[in-house]
Amino acid sequence: MSGSRPAHHAVQAIAVVATILLVATACTNDTDEPPAEHSPPPPELVHSHVWSTEPGTDLFSREAELIRASIEGAEMTYRFGIDNSFPGYSEAVGGPRETTDDHFDRGAAWNSPIDVRQRPVTLYRHLVDLEVDHDRITANVCSYQLFAEGDNTLFNPLSRATRVELLLAPGGNYGAAGTPDSDPATSDPDAQNPPGWNVFGDWRIQTLRLIPVSPDHTIPESCLPWWSSRFPEFEHRTELNILNAPDGWTPPTQPVALQYPEWIGPTENQ
After folding, report:
1. What does the DSSP assignment read for 122-143?
2. Percent share of the chain, pLDDT over 90
3. Counting beta carbons within 10 angstroms of the beta carbon of residue 148, is it exposed (0 to 12), middle (13 to 18) or buried (19 or more)?
4. What does the alpha-carbon distance between residue 195 and residue 197 come to, in Å, rounded to a whole number?
5. In what helix (H) or strand (E) does residue 48 lie, and over which residues does it extend?
6. 237 forms bridges with which residues in the sheet?
7. Quick one: pLDDT at residue 113?
8. Beta 136-147 vs 47-53: how paired, if at all?
9. Is 82:94 a contact under the CB 8 Å cutoff?
10. What residues does 139 pair with on adjacent strands?
11. What does DSSP assign to residue 112?
């Protein structure tokens, strides 16, 4: 009997150690954080925006940045749906929703894309009539687009102008502009498109609407000098503030241009 006692104690000791290890393992598993979820990569873009503005307006100001982000975020929504738009865009437009009204273009807040063809295109944008009143920003954006190939039925007449309005949420942070793009001819290695941060912050988009071409609506006169400088052969239709191409004119094609300005990096407001 005395010879079996040490063996019995050894078995008990092994059982205790095994129990401790099992408990420790269970506790460790209970407290382990789940593996981090990886965000899907941004959609592959076959379009770019090339911006300009009228004299006296800073394209890199916080106010102009918000107008640019609104227009580009809407374009991403048209192409990929609101969940794949700019960070913060869905909150800024109060989306997603499938309804339309007088303040938003069709599809500007939709879950599903409405342009699924993904034709390579350069979207030229010209910011005009920028006004800032404390917590309110308004502007018009004149546009035209050049595809890399194929027909361009939206080119004639030159008439695409979008009204944009943003309001700062009550008590919200105005924010500061991001890093300017100092060279339109080269791509910055730190550029992100779409940006990886929330450009909008506490700003909310109130209006993002293509201005209709009709006698009841006025295309901004401030668009005409820019359009005319790009296409001097076009004829001005005074009653509608649009430009018509001459008979037989064919829209040019071009490779997709370098994005300008690029979204290089946030500042303290993001």
Report:
1. EEEEEEEEEEEETTEEEEEEEE
2. 61
3. middle
4. 6
5. strand 47-53
6. 242
7. 63
8. unpaired
9. no
10. 164
11. S
Residue 94 has which token pair? 């109060």
CA 124 to chain CA mean position, Å:
15
CA nearest to 267, candidates 139, 174, 134, 160 = 174
* Whole-number Å distance between alpha carbons of 73 and 89: 6
Contact 217, 106 (CB under 8 A): no
List, in sequence order, every beta strand (DSSP E) within 87-189.
121-133, 136-147, 160-168
What tokens appear for 152 in the block?
């361009």
Residues 6 or more apart whose Cβ sits within 8 Å of residue 89: 69, 73, 74, 76, 77, 82, 95, 200
Strand partners of residue 235: 244
Q: How far apart are CA 68 and CA 180, in angstroms?
A: 13
Identify the three-state secondary structure at position 87: coil
In tens, the pLDDT along 143-191 reads 999 999 988 877 889 999 999 999 999 999 999 999 999 999 999 999 9
What does the alpha-carbon distance between residue 50 and residue 85 come to, in Å, rounded to a whole number? 18
Neighbours of 227 (CB within 10 A): 25
Q: Could you report the per-residue pLDDT of 13-60, keeping only the tens digit for each?
A: 434 334 433 344 444 444 455 555 455 565 678 999 999 999 999 999
How many C-beta neighbours within 10 Å does residue 39 have?
Answer: 7
Preceding omega of 246 cis (within 30 degrees of 0) = no
d(CA 91, CA 84): 13
